[in-house]
Amino acid sequence: MSASDFALDPAVHHLNPGAFGIVPAVVRAAQARYQRAADANPMRFHRVDGPALVARAREAAGEFLGAEVVLVRNATEAAATVLAAADLRAGEEVLVSDHGYGAIAHSARSTAERTGARVRVAPIPVGATSERIVAAFAAGLTDRTKLVLVDAISSATALVLPVAEIAAVCRERGALVHVDAAHAPGHLRQRPDQLGAHTWAGNLHKWAYTPNTSAALWIAPEHRERVRPLVPSWEFPHGYPRWFDHAGTSDYSGWMAIPDGLAYWASIGGWDAVDAGARSLDRGVEVVSAALGAPGQVSPLHAPLMRLVRLPAGRVVDLASSNALYAELSARGVEAAVVEFGGEGFVRLAGSPHITENDYRALADALTAQFA
Ligand SMILES: Cc1ncc(COP(=O)(O)O)c(C=O)c1O
């Protein structure tokens, strides 16, 4: 596998593939075939072939993840689905951490504003140990906590959270647990049904090479009647899982190409490719840390394919300054995630078979030019 498997601009160093996913050309071609079939005979495709292809995709996603799932468009939609099903009442609480994904925290706030519930935020230092992370969630629980949103891999800070331990503490206190595993599929060896959570959602379009708008939502069996699609449609009378299969007239080709994306993931080595990407990222962390005079990756809890290196103090202190540094790097043909967390600046590196040492060196050079 190489960068030429994708439509990526070869003049650019693409060091942040997890943000929006990268789609192999063969997968895009498969998706285009589904779209052409829809155009060739819309009536038959939408009535007959389409539903069968969606059901096939849903089953393929479940097989890949090791548990039966339904399809949603993305992790954001999954969280909104779970928040809607939580049936929050005035005075009840949703617990999130300050590492949680911003859009999903907004979703929690929107639901809380509408229902009179409250969002409580558990603060976690970026270098926290697993024990400290569990303790932070435990400290945020109250008798009013109804739902806890936990990241499998935090977006900005790339930490693998001890989800099972957190879920155990939450269950003891009677709270529902949703795992936002946006970055997990094809990246973490994590089975949705083995964490003690009530719901779990992962994007296949980040690390599993499926087109955008392909995500999986796992719902614990006893909650499958309660957690319903946000947009009930013609499949509604069939109940779970089919009532998630259709949300009105739309382009479902992203879902239909899930088996093609997963086949590509397997064809480049599957978990072996993930392990190779992690080793190459070890080297990337060395290269960038050496250039910045940083001590290496910030936490031992970082994800296999995403790690933070601390930037020299003072330059990135808020969203505006992180956006400004990102723009400087981008102007030099380097696409990388510049992160601000707790008033400190970091660069988030990724590992992927298409990223070479040359790409890490380009990032190191671009950063050195900025911090010289
Ligand atoms: C932890 C986490 N949750 C949710 C999302 C949102 O994903 P999507 O935009 O596909 O819903 C992201 C995206 O990076 C993420 O990292």
Describe this structure in words.
With 372 residues, the chain is an alpha/beta fold. The protein has two domains: 39-264, Type I PLP-dependent aspartate aminotransferase-like (Major domain) (Aspartate Aminotransferase, domain 2); 269-371, Aspartate Aminotransferase, domain 1 (Alpha-Beta Complex). The chain is built from 13 helices and twelve strands. It is globular and about 65 Å long. It binds pyridoxal-5'-phosphate. Pyridoxal-5'-phosphate binds at residues 19, 74-76, 101, 103-104, 151, 155, 180, 182-183, 203.
Report the bound ligands by name, code or SMILES.
pyridoxal-5'-phosphate
Question: In the CATH classification, which architecture of the largest domain applies?
Answer: 3-Layer(aba) Sandwich
- The count of DSSP E runs of length 2 or more, i.e. the number of strands, is 12
Beta-sheet strand percentage?
15-25%
Task: Give me the CATH fold name of the largest domain.
Answer: Aspartate Aminotransferase, domain 2
Summarize the biggest pleated sheet.
7 strands, mixed
Number of domains: 2
What's the CATH H-level homologous superfamily of the largest domain? Type I PLP-dependent aspartate aminotransferase-like (Major domain)
Mean pLDDT: 97
With strands numbered from the N-terminus, the spatial order across the biggest sheet is: 2-8-7-6-5-3-4
| Residue share in helix | 40-55%
From the N-terminal CA to the C-terminal CA, the straight-line distance is 35 Å
Shape summary: globular
Indicate the low-confidence ranges by residue numbers: none
Q: How would you classify the helix and strand content by structural class?
A: alpha/beta
* Integer-rounded radius of gyration: 21 Å
